[in-house]
Design brief:
single chain; Cytochrome Bc1 Complex, Chain C
Length: about 525
């Protein structure tokens, strides 16, 4: 019966050909490609647990008196939103598990997205024809950060209320339109009555719908353009993908990964405490908790606010307040650079061709160095967000810790970027497969393959009547050959190289006067 029904449907819509083609699609099986799937599956967990929480959360700032099971708060005046969150944690069966699982799922979701973006950046997977997917991915990251903040702010506890106060101040700091912008978003002067209901609608409807739509387009583009793959390994070319078929092998991997992600997040929700709002107490405009740190995904923004010098300027009759620089300028430059990077790289390198094989970090030293510079910049800002805790741990003043980060944040990333560039150039020129195989002097003097090529690569002195040839090996790597027909001399490089350019560079170091007559053999 089912077979006849399937045949009847296929006769009318022709789905069997598409299904056969789809199930035979090949996907690479490198572990780093699973980061995107982990983000997708944690988003699914977010939706499942979020639906449960929606049944019990009351997005109202109307005042009430708590009479629940948590004795330290009994008789305390609080908002309905905060009361419902405490009730979820103590009076609703499995409520605390679902609350904490939801929070952990948000952390895993954003963490996997960040790692996924880093993998795409450092491997060059954003290059043509995938610029649109890169833009979609950066937009997904922004939406995830924003929705994390809206969800973090919903309980109306003292810690989240402090975060909302900071957001209100940043909105006010925007020149010219800041006052109108703050009143538009918050519905009045802080603390406004409308902000919690507005955040609730945004958190459970608007942003999740936008994320789901962008994820669908993102996956459709991956399906249409085929997946990228690493160049290292047999039979890997720009025109193919090496790996298991979607059905049944890759589907089994993917389903297993989903259940693993689901199990880990739910186990963390039941065993690892996070965001114990009952300890913070209800929000009071006149109170600020200390020490206080936001969730990690906003730590870099908090750190920028904490260590930025007390500078304010006045121009054209308007004052530009201090929070505007770290709170608006820094995020704008950050995400603006992410959006523009594929086009800037294509413009400055002249590489506008399609790419389906991924780079290793050494293949593009400038990109790698820039990425390490930016990454270390944000890691330091993340640490700066805990300047109060660091001051306590190191028995120092908060001002001392803040000044340390004011110096370290602009200096350390540049030093790390410079060192990374030299390391990548040396590694690429040496032809070594791993860092451990690269001679130390190659880092000190990253030229050629890091050695004295005329001695290490060849025993004969360079002569003008010889000729150089760069040729590929069966494994896809490259070597060079020096021939001198006059005395039937032929020398080959004792190392192989990742690209033909690297092999040619080493050959010219060994025999600078010999012409390169051909590439390939």
């Amino acid at each position: 019966m089912f077979r006849r029904l399937a045949a009847w449907i296929d006769d009318r819509i022709g789905g069997s050909a598409f299904a056969e083609s789809a199930l035979s699609k090949v996907f690479p099986d490198h572990w780093s490609f699973m980061l995107g799937e982990i983000a997708l599956y944690s988003f699914v967990v977010l939706v499942i647990t979020g639906v449960f929480l929606t049944f019990f959360f009351d997005p109202s700032v109307a005042e009430t008196t708590y009479q629940g099971d948590y004795e330290p708060l009994q008789g305390v005046t609080m908002s309905e939103a905060y009361r419902s969150v405490v009730d979820l944690s103590y009076d609703v069966r499995a409520g605390l598990v679902m609350r904490q699982a939801h929070h952990w799922a948000a952390i895993v979701f954003i963490g996997a997205l960040v790692l996924h973006v880093l993998r795409v950046f450092f491997t060059g997977a954003f290059r043509r024809p995938r610029e649109i997917n890169w833009v979609l991915g950066v937009t997904l990251l922004i939406l995830a950060l924003f929705n994390g903040f809206t969800g973090y702010s919903l309980p109306d506890d003292l810690l989240s209320g402090t975060g909302l106060r900071i957001a209100y101040s940043i909105a006010l700091s925007v020149p010219v339109i800041g006052t109108w912008l703050a009143f538009l978003v918050f519905g009045g002067e802080f603390p406004a009555q409308e902000i919690i209901p507005r955040l609730f609608v945004t958190h459970i409807m608007i942003v999740p719908a936008a994320i789901a739509a962008l994820v669908s387009v993102h996956l459709a583009l991956i399906w249409h353009q085929k997946h990228t793959d690493f160049a290292v390994g047999p039979a890997r070319r720009e025109s193919n993908v090496v790996g298991p078929k979607l059905w049944p092998t890759y589907a089994a991997y993917s389903v297993g990964l989903f259940f693993a992600v689901f199990a880990v997040i739910m186990a963390m929700g039941g065993l690892v405490q996070i965001n114990p709002v009952w300890l913070y107490g209800p929000f009071r405009p006149a109170e600020v908790p200390s020490p206080a740190q936001p969730d990690w995904w906003l730590g870099w923004a908090e750190g920028a606010l904490r260590i930025f010098p007390p500078w304010e300027i006045r121009a054209f009759g308007y004052e530009v307040p201090n929070p505007f620089y770290p709170g608006v300028i820094v995020p704008t430059i950050t995400f603006g650079a992410l959006y523009l990077w594929p086009f800037l790289e294509a413009r400055f390198t002249g590489d506008r061709g399609p790419h389906h094989l991924l780079d290793r970090a050494r293949d593009h030293p400038v990109r790698t160095a820039f990425g390490i510079t930016a990454l270390s910049f944000f890691v330091l800002l993340q640490l700066a967000a805990s300047n109060d805790l660091l001051a306590h741990w190191f028995d120092a003043s908060v001002a001392t810790i803040s000044w340390f980060f004011r110096i370290a944040v602009p200096v350390v990333p540049l030093v790390l970027g410079w060192f990374t560039y030299r390391l990548m150039v040396a590694l690429r020129a040496s032809g070594a497969e791993r860092f451990a195989e690269m001679p130390l002097r190659a880092v000190v003097r990253p030229a050629g393959d890091g050695e004295r090529p005329a001695v290490a690569e060849a025993t004969a002195a360079p002569v003008p009547d010889g000729e150089l040839t760069v040729y590929p090996e069966p494994d896809g790597r490259w070597r060079w050959r020096y021939r001198r027909p006059a005395d039937d001399l032929e020398l080959h490089s004792n190392k192989s190289y990742v690209t033909a350019d690297d092999a040619e560079h080493s050959a010219r170091q060994a025999f600078p006067e010999a012409p390169l007559v051909s590439s390939g053999d």
